Amino acid sequence: MNFFKKSYFLAPTWDLDPSEIALGSVIADITTPQMFISNKDLPTEIDKKIHSWEVKGCSGGMKHWRKGGIGLFTTLLQAIKSYFAISYVSTLSSEFKYTCELIETRTFALSPQFVAKAAADPAVATFLKTGDKVFIITGVKIAKTLDIITIKVMENSTIVQASAGIPIPDLQIKAEAGQDHGRYHTHTQRIDGPILFAFQVARLRLNRKNVPTIEDYAGMEIHP
């Protein structure tokens, strides 16, 4: 089976220890990646090489919508300036900008043999038979020394455009508001980490012949 695109979901909270999320685990809800339904020993059955690499001095941005329930990366930049145009109406949304000392990525490709073992897990098999969605964790991004600026846009307000210059080590942000200028605010925080920053999943399901198959699950392609 081929590698999927580098499609990741932002961690639902900033306090998840990387040890709580194991590659190869099966989860039923992408908003709680730490709550796996598969046997704790399933990750030991991984039969493909786990690829790991680190990138230092990262910066970038991502968006988060309340309706979606989970953040998505929109871009990952390394020590460059970014510019974006956004428009929000009748929703609570957030725009994140960040810098971090280091991001470590760990990922692996699913083999047919591992997919079969995951589908045969008793708890996973029960979910599959009832048609519920289940996901295999195939990648994680772990961040250390993370600085985050959040711009929150409240309901019924619109930001027409915003720009951000992200030099390292200083982080500056400038926003130009359209309607309801007072309905957004910024917040800055530092997280030493290491923490789970993002994770990658593949959906596991049964086809019409009751054979387990996998498919990419919508996130955003990011680098590195």
Q: What does this entry look like structurally?
A:
This protein is mainly β. The protein has one domain. It contains two helices and 13 strands, in the order E-E-E-E-E-E-H-H-E-E-E-E-E-E-E. It has helices spanning 112-120, 122-129; strands at residues 7-10, 26-27, 51-65, 72-77, 82-84, 93-107, 134-153, 161-165, 172-176, 184-191, 195-206, 212-216, 220-221. The radius of gyration is 19 Å and the shape is globular.
> What's the β-strand tally?
13
* Count of separate DSSP helical elements: 2
Estimate what percentage of residues fall within beta strands: over 45%
Unreliable segments of 5+ consecutive residues? 1-5, 66-91, 156-182
